[in-house]
Design brief:
It is built from twelve helices and 16 strands. Strands 5-13-12-6-11 form a five-stranded mixed beta sheet. It folds into four domains: about 1-65 and about 95-195, D-amino Acid Aminotransferase, Chain A, domain 1; about 70-95 and about 200-240, Dna Ligase, domain 1 (2-Layer Sandwich); about 245-310, Methane Monooxygenase Hydroxylase, Chain G, domain 1 (Up-down Bundle), CATH 1.20.58.2250; about 315-360. By secondary structure, the chain is an alpha+beta fold.
């Protein structure tokens, strides 16, 4: 088995990983993925390999793409930054999209989501937008990007004024996941014409809480998500910090589809608001935050209840643009295999491209609301 060979495991050990559902299918076999014979993804962390690690059997041999590590979160800027870092740090914008690793297998680019799926839509966009000469010069590296834009299948946002694009936040070794220093990443992005997630500030760690607060307050109200705080040499693990606007937007989204999302998702964001209020707010700002938080929770929840009461389903609508009907069909098959309940609302060819409007049907939330509106007890 190629997984055993790639990771130095015995064949029985590799088979056991499949039996325990640690290893799962990473892609749909299709001519759109001509360089990949087979590929599996790690659905859980295993022996130092992050969740989302992919092992691919390609036409040129076996490739391992290390999963992207989870970044821990700061609830306070002081004293957290001062205790966590030494020396120079940067505040990089945490862009509002979804995490993608772009690699080259054989002659083509492939885009892997955080969980390790080779996504047809994102792969198509990578082949259209990313300079593949980088991978020919650096075959052992991968680009870790945030995929953003209004035509995003997972996080549709009209914040950056783009239909869809990639912004590099890390350049890492493909197999080990080891990151390059910030300056080397910047140099590579400039050389190959790659978008770079903006570096908003640089300072010494002991000044980080002052600079960080200024940066976070400047981002507030603009739809920006927050910051990732990084050691310039990428030796110390990064940490992240989000704006109040993002916390409330997340809560608004979660309560709109409340039965699809875990309580931990909601609870953690309310706790973040509490710590940020303690560190940032005077009495007036505290009252504003209370209103903003309450509105985020109730407004979207009531909208969902109203939709169901008037005979509609609770859905999330996305608009996507494909280069061909073939890629559209492959992507919808990818959604089915990922367990997504969806409905194609509109499909047409315009300007040489395939435009699709897709509703992700939130069946659990719809059914739950319908049940309670009918008198069921909680």
């Amino acid at each position: 088995m190629y997984v055993a060979e790639a990771l130095g495991l015995s064949k029985p050990a590799a088979e056991k990983l499949k039996e325990k559902n640690v290893l799962k299918e990473a892609f749909i076999k299709h001519p759109f993925f001509p360089d990949v014979i087979d590929a599996v993804r790690f659905d859980k962390r295993f022996a130092g390999l992050e969740e989302g690690t992919v092992v691919a059997k390609t036409i040129h041999g076996v490739e391992v793409v290390h999963g992207f590590p989870k970044i821990r979160r700061a609830l306070t800027l002081y004293p957290t930054i001062k205790l966590h870092f030494k020396g120079e740090i940067v505040f990089e914008e945490k862009m509002n999209g979804y995490n993608v690793r772009i690699v080259m297998f054989g002659k083509n680019l492939y885009a892997l989501t955080r969980r390790g799926f080779i996504c047809p839509y994102t792969t198509e966009k990578a082949r259209e937008l990313i300079n593949e000469s980088f991978f020919k010069d650096y075959p052992n590296l991968m680009l870790c990007c945030e995929a953003v834009g209004r035509y995003s299948p997972y996080v549709p946002k009209d914040v950056y004024g783009v239909d869809f694009d990639f912004y590099v936040f890390d350049v890492r070794e493909k197999r080990s996941g080891k990151p390059l220093p910030v300056k080397e990443k910047e140099k590579i992005c400039e050389e190959y014409g790659l978008n770079l997630a903006p570096i908003l500030a640089q300072c010494k760690a002991e000044e980080g809480h002052v600079v960080g607060r200024r940066v976070v307050e400047e981002l507030e109200g603009s739809g920006r998500e927050g910051v990732v705080i990084k050691d310039v040499n990428m030796v110390v693990e990064p940490i992240k910090y989000t704006t109040s606007e993002t916390n409330c937007n997340d809560l608004s989204y979660a309560f709109r589809y409340f039965n699809e999302y875990g309580k931990d998702f909601m609870f953690s964001r309310i706790v973040r608001e509490g710590f940020q209020s303690f560190e940032f707010d005077d009495e007036e700002k505290f009252r504003e935050r209370c209103f903003r938080l309450g509105k985020a929770i109730l407004e979207s929840l009531v909208k969902s209840i109203k939709d169901v009461s008037e005979g509609r389903r609770v859905v999330e609508r996305v608009e996507l643009i494909f280069s061909s009907f073939e890629t559209f069909e492959l992507f919808t098959e990818h959604l089915k295999r990922s367990g997504v309940n969806f409905e194609v609302v509109e499909l047409k060819k315009r300007g040489g491209k395939v435009h699709a409007v897709i509703d992700r049907v939130m069946k659990s939330t719809t059914d739950k609301i319908k049940s309670h509106l009918g008198g069921a007890l909680w």
